[in-house]
Design a protein that fits this description.
It is a single chain. Strand 1 and strand 2 (28-33) form a beta hairpin. 67% of the residues lie in helices and 13% in strands. It has one domain. The protein contains three helices and two strands. The two termini are 39 Å apart. The chain has a two-stranded antiparallel sheet with strand order 1-2. With 100 residues, it is an alpha+beta fold. The protein has helices at 2-14, 40-44, 51-99; strands at residues 16-22, 28-33. This is Transmembrane protein. The chain crosses the membrane at residues 67-87. Residues 1-19 form the signal peptide.
């Protein structure tokens, strides 16, 4: 389950972030992805508002829910992996003691 949530979080970070507004040529304003901002279109767009600031807010909102999801699911997955390795090691040591 943790690996599924980790994959969802990483995919969500990779999807592009768009504003609801359009530039003067009719293209929806793209802000970049959760990994990296691309404010070139937002700064070049002419319209009612500061699209660069709106893009930064939209990117922040994307990161506010995806980064904690990725971190928590990664930590849970790591904890499960360590617990499984420790349990496997204890079981293999116990089986060697019983046969000796």
């Amino acid at each position: 389950m943790a690996s599924v949530l980790l994959a969802i979080g990483l995919l969500a970070m990779n999807f592009p972030v768009f504003l609801d507004d359009y530039d003067q040529w009719g293209w929806q304003i793209k802000c970049g992805t959760g990994f990296a901002a691309d404010l070139a279109q937002a700064t070049a767009a002419v319209g009612n508002g500061n699209y660069a600031d709106e893009c930064e807010t939209a990117l922040l909102m994307r990161r506010l829910w995806t980064v904690p999801l990725v971190v928590v699911s990664g930590l849970v997955g790591l904890a499960v992996l360590v617990a499984a390795a420790a349990t496997s090691e204890r079981e293999s040591l116990a089986s060697h003691r019983e046969t000796a």
